[in-house]
Amino acid sequence: MKNLILPFLLLSFLTSFGQGSLESDRLALIALYNSTNGSAWFQKAGWDPAGSPGDSPCGWYGVTCEGGRVTGLNLLQSGLDGSIPPAIGNLDQLKTLILGWTVLTDSRTAYNPPYLPIPTEIGNLTNLEHLDLSGDNGINYDIYGGLPLPGPLPASIGNLTKLTYLNLSCMLRDMMYHGSLDGPIPATFGNLVNLKYLNLSNQQFSGAIPSELGNLTQLEHLNLNGANQFTGTIPASFNNLTSLKTLGLGYYNNNCCGSPAFGGLTGPIPNLSGIPATADVSIPNNSFNFEGLDLNISLIDLYSNQAKIGINYNVGTKVLTAEAGGIIANNTYKWYRNNTLIATIAGNKAYNVTEDGTYYAEVTNNAVPGLTLTTDNEVVTSLPVNLVSFSGSNEGEQNLLTWKTTFESNSQGFDIERSWNGIDFEIIGFLPSQGESNASKEYSFADKNPFFTSYYRLKQLDFDGTFAYSKVISIKNQNAHILAYPNPAKDHFYLKNLKEKGEVSVQNLEGKVISRQIGEPGKPLTTVGIAPGLYIIRISGMAQKIVIMK
After folding, report:
1. Could you tell me which InterPro entries the record lists for this protein (predicted)?
2. What does the domain layout of the chain look like in residue ranges?
């Protein structure tokens, strides 16, 4: 009998101290403590990282246990500073994990968690029902902080199919800052079919909103508001979200980091009639026109302040058209030349040009009260060439400009001019004329060093010294984006996505240059000689706010 009992006891001992035990939970908690500067936590009563095997973590601050396992961890406002360790995935009985938002005490900024990405092992926590890794860019008048969770989300979050609550937002107290989660929302989020609350607001997510979110038919609150830089249309699958109470797709420019003034969500807006009429739906500060907005107007509560819409000029017919979308019969177009109203036209988007000048249009739709769409400016001049078209596109690391003429006489060529703000232009190239001709001619020019958003115009030069400018076009380069980390920084910081050597300037909020350094990919930049505070880093027309702490 003793021979049978001893192996049984040994097996029980090994099991109780192995993987999937309270001891493995204790070790995972210690790993979290060590990787997030636990000795400096604001609240850590009972935590004993130097304890012995077999010690119970169930009395530690924020730790909840059931059935001999850790099932809850709530370190809200505890000041974690560092990284979430892969060992977090060993807490496989967790139902609640809250490492959420930050606080300030005196002159110290507390924030959590970390300067490293959320580990893939988070997907091992398949019993999770409540996950909160939200951040706070909590500020006072002197110290600014942010949610340091840079990088894309792991697709493994899609394994957490029991989740009913997921919060990865950055709570803004200052609209000049945002979180650092970037990249696309993983399509695996569509697996989280039990979610009722999903908040990804005020981060830097980009790309298309995945249609798989339409699988979340129990969702009541979906918040994608803030500094996220989504592109494309609202997924048609959102019509399946029949339990929604709030839907936030608004973009709020934080005036930093090279962020565009408006969000990239565009129309047409799909049929959203499946969303309850009582839901609060908001889509402000994006790039929608009236297309689909007029048909969903009874469902959308906030839609004001959309980006400028397109305007086209046909040189041959001398006709301007404003691309406002929607049912044209419901649209009214007010045309301006040199900032003076010259025509009001209902139900017709075209205007016949008779004089040179700078034109734009304001468009309203009688089905969409309170929204006026404004076109870009279109400069109409009698160029010494007949410029039929001028356009551009982002081609990976470069911007490609193309234009076409149908008549050239006495033309010397084209200066290509670029601006980072649409106001101050510099010459970046010249293409000579292809000679006098009545035939169509095509030109192209590649800008190999574009800004995050670049503005371009052509200066057509004549041999007699006269010249004329084309319209201004803009191109957004998704690849030209930098991210300073760690942020806040102490002795040094790095620039993510920096692809080549260049001068980096550190400026105070008044624009005074405090430091100039040469930045290189993968190499740190020093904060020596820079006093603690909030600064703006600039390189190649891009900007990023950073907090420097000593």
Report:
1. Leu-rich_rpt (IPR001611), LRR_dom_sf (IPR032675), LRR_N_plant-typ (IPR013210), Secre_tail (IPR026444)
2. 13-282, 310-379, 381-476, 483-548
